[in-house]
Design brief:
It is built from four helices and five strands. It has helices at about 1-15, 25-35, 40, 90-105; strands spanning about 45-50, 55-60, 65-70, 75-80, 80-85. It starts with a helix and ends in a 41-residue tail after the last helix.
Length: about 140
């Protein structure tokens, strides 16, 4: 009976993740290396990008996204201008922190989205400058003496 229960639970997970049209190695890296599990809780969709090397764009449920590139020796996670190799433990940890920041940072509303109540002569609200969205930088390696 325990085997049947475990099998049913695994099949439910497989059926939930079947909607994603992405290579299994990409799904595996996202789940087990980057700790984005279950995928349907965080990820909206995947999109193949026509780049060299081949890559996928991962769209998160909050509208943010990041790219995953297939390099010859490892997968590369690119978030904005930052790049992280999944094969390197330190860089993978920084990538996890940066993805977490993408998931948890509040999205800023544009001026058109805000409802303003006021009179005709009121001045429009001034847009605030967004906070920098860069994760902690990896430590610089010092040459050994």
């Amino acid at each position: 009976m325990k085997k049947l229960k475990k099998y049913i639970q695994e099949e439910i997970v497989n059926l939930q993740e079947e909607e994603y049209k992405a290579p299994p190695e990409l799904l595996s890296v996202l789940k087990y290396k980057l700790k984005i599990d279950p995928l349907n809780r965080f990820i909206d969709k995947f999109k193949a990008v026509n780049t060299i090397p081949p890559s996928y764009r991962v769209f998160l449920l909050n509208g943010e996204f990041f790219d995953v590139y297939y390099e010859s020796f490892s997968l590369l996670i690119k978030i904005g201008s930052k790049e992280y190799f999944v094969g390197d433990l330190d860089e993978r940890n920084y990538a996890i922190k940066h993805i977490n920041k993408l998931l948890t940072d509040p999205l800023l509303k544009s001026i058109g989205d805000e409802e303003t109540e006021g009179e005709v002569g009121d001045t429009p609200p001034t847009p605030s400058t967004p906070p920098p969205s860069s994760p902690p930088s990896p430590p610089d390696e010092e040459p050994e003496a």
